[in-house]
Amino acid sequence: MTDKVSLSCSARTADGVVTVRLEAVNRSSAPVHVLSSKRLPYVMFEQGRAIVLYGVNDPDPDLDYYTIEIPPSRPLAPGETLVAEVQVVPLVPHHHYESKTAPVALPAELEVVCKLAYGDAPTDPPKMAINALLAWQQWVIAPTLRVATDGAAR
Questions:
Q1: Are 151 and 16 within 8 A, CB to CB?
Q2: What residue segments make up the domains of the chain, in order of their start?
Q3: Which pLDDT does position 16 carry in this prediction?
Q4: What confidence score (pLDDT) does residue 150 get?
Q5: How far, in Å, CA of 11 to CA of 4, rounded?
Q6: What are the angstrom distances between the C-alpha of 35 and each of 69, 130, 136?
Q7: Left (φ > 0), alpha (ψ -120 to 50) or beta: where does 15 sit?
Q8: 5-148: CATH, from 2.60.40, 2.40.50, 2.30.30, 3.40.630
Q9: Strands in 3-144 per DSSP E
Q10: Residues in the chain, pLDDT under 70
Q11: Which of 86, 142, 85, 145 is nearest to 110 (CA)?
């Protein structure tokens, strides 16, 4: 089966800052649900590449969390497009559970992977536990981008 949602990512550079733009389109004949949080998308730096994440990453199994936010969702109608942007150069990592304050050192060319989560039904933040949210997420991944981190166009 093909994904109900298509995802594309593009990058633009201005004044040494690289911004990644995600565009997700509901290709199905019924609404799907996407998370609705002003904190999204997240950007993480793992194994030398940037992960742009429009969804919730797994919690660290070695940490105890007092409480974990469950974001609300909103419907994405058939044919509707969701657009979101995030800065990847300089890259200051932030994800669902924490935010860094300093940029990380990047290679001259950065691989960027974009992922978006959606579900068939709305989330239920007051009643939903993190494991239920993680199981709710169906992932779509865009083709990998490569961007120059020195501000030069490539």
A1: yes
A2: 5-148
A3: 86
A4: 78
A5: 24
A6: 12, 14, 11
A7: left
A8: 2.60.40
A9: 5-14, 17-26, 32-35, 42-46, 49-54, 73-76, 81-89, 109-119, 138-141
A10: 1, 63, 65, 151-154
A11: 145
Q: Assess whether the previous peptide bond of 41 is cis (omega < 30° from 0).
A: yes
Q: Provide the greatest CA pair distance for the chain.
A: 48
Q: Which amino acid is at 138?
A: Q
Confidence at residue 126, expressed as pLDDT on a 0 to 100 scale: 86
Encode burial over 45-79: b for 16+ CB neighbours within 10 A, e otherwise: beeebbbbbbbbbebeeeeeeeeeebbebeebeee
Rounded to 5 degrees, what angle do the CA atoms 92, 116, 93 make? 10
Backbone angles phi, psi at 31, to 5 degrees: -65, 150
pLDDT for res 65: 66
- What's the residue count for the chain? 154
The pLDDT of residue 154 is 45
Q: What DSSP character marks residue 38?
A: T
pLDDT of residue 153: 44
